TrEMBL record:
Pfam families: PBP. The lineage of its organism: unclassified sequences, metagenomes, ecological metagenomes. Transmembrane segments: none annotated. This is Unannotated protein. Signal peptide: none annotated.
């Protein structure tokens, strides 16, 4: 009987010891609203390999007329036939050069003006000039420079000036004709800005 009591006493002591190891005797309280508000939400990190895309302003080309309107006759064959002043902004930071092409939408084989390898620090072209150091291709009139829009009498043609932000210079030793330069600029273009217009005669 004495042995049985000893065994029971040992079992009770062991149970007490086990309980005392799992708690310190204090009662947990529910968190207050202030304590809950002080907990900062976790930051979500994009999965490894996912690119973070930054939104930037589009490449903008400005001419003496608003895009989508009629050309000022000053820049046509009925006026001074001067090349227009142009300005642009918001080019991609990795731009290595700019290029310009003026084409006739109604006569795709006719090229009015093509310039490439414009220095990336240049953001304007003055009226009736070409940027220093840039390559000017022969237009469809077989002249290096600007061929003023001059559609047939009684017609209206649509035109477009395209500004190219280029990731590399165009090899003008290998590609010197206006169509080939346009093709090469399209091959290394980062972004374009456009100005579309019409001219009637």
């Amino acid at each position: 009987m004495s042995s049985l009591r000893s065994t029971i006493a040992i079992a009770v002591c062991a149970a007490v010891a086990l309980v005392s190891c799992s708690t310190d005797g204090r009662t947990m309280q529910e968190p207050t609203p202030n304590q809950i508000a002080a907990i900062s939400p976790g930051t979500t990190i994009p999965p490894e390999g996912d690119a973070v895309i930054e939104q930037t302003a589009p490449l903008t080309l400005t001419a003496p007329w608003a895009s989508g309107t009629a050309l000022d006759p000053r820049y046509s064959c009925d006026g001074e036939a001067f090349s227009p002043s142009l300005a642009w902004s918001s080019a991609p930071p990795e731009t290595k050069a700019f290029g310009i092409a003026l084409t006739d939408r109604d006569r795709p084989d006719y090229v009015h003006w093509v310039i490439t390898n414009i220095d990336p620090t240049v953001t304007t072209i003055l009226e009736n000039t070409n940027p220093a150091g840039a390559f000017v291709a022969e237009n469809s009139e077989k002249k290096r420079g600007y061929a003023a829009p001059c559609p047939p009498a009684g017609s209206t043609h649509s035109y477009g000036i395209t500004l190219y932000a280029l990731s590399a210079l165009v090899d003008t030793q290998k590609y010197s004709t206006a169509p080939s330069i346009i093709e090469q600029m399209n091959a290394v273009v980062l972004e374009v800005g456009t100005n579309d217009f019409t001219y009637s005669r």
